[in-house]
Amino acid sequence: MFMRFPSFARPSLGWVFAGFMLTSAVISGAQADEIKGYLPAAVSVANFPAAPAPGSKVDQDDRAAALDLQAKRTPERVALAQADQKLDVFSAFGSVLGPKVTEASAPSLSRLMARSLRDVGATVLPFKELYKRPRPPLADAAVTVCVRLPENGLNSYPSGHAMWGAMAGTLLAELVPAKADALKARGLDYGLSRAVC
Fold it and tell me: Is the N-terminal amide bond of 158 cis, ω within 30° of 0?
């Protein structure tokens, strides 16, 4: 857990990411196809909620919420949701972290997020396969998308983007406690982008 310092002694963002850069010598720079997650291969996620049964009240409420979001989306929110399609910590959280935090300035953060992304995929994909919940526009013709859907479908539940946003926001909040609330809020808003589009 990140040590909490009094506000006058709290390390600056620069010091936090300097620590990341120092550890990059320890963490190898493996190619993307060699990147491994942190979690064991067979991870059991206890109490993961099941997808709503087709036609159930929860399913109907979920579709109504999707249509409500669709009716209320603005061009600005659509543009953000489209930008949020990319699973990239620097573009997704740059508005909170600031322009000095980049892949070049924080390579170990990049590595941490790449490995964590593998864990999100390993957690989400088995549940997507288990529940096989169709994406909203495939389940309801009234739902229109504003991003390109994956050609292979991959089903909609659980949302990998929403889980990645929550995970990234939580990790960054631990690393940069001075901006914890804003980072967590951005992580949740990133997930909302999937519902918006």
Answer: yes
Which pLDDT value is given to residue 38? 67
Interacting residues of 174 by C-beta distance below 8 A, sequence separation 6+: 1, 2, 180
| Contact partners, residue 129, CB within 8 Å, separation at least 6 | 155
Identify the pLDDT of residue 179: 95
| Residue from 59, 83, 55, 61 nearest 197 by CA | 83
- pLDDT, tens only, 150-175: 776 678 888 889 999 999 999 999 99
Query: How far lies 71's CA from each of 55, 102, 161, 178, 188, in Å?
Result: 22, 35, 22, 36, 20
DSSP code of 154? -
Residue 98: helix, strand or coil by DSSP?
coil
Rg (CA), the chain: 18
Categorise residue 47: left if φ over 0, alpha if ψ from -120 to 50, beta otherwise: left
Evaluate if pTM is beyond 0.85: no
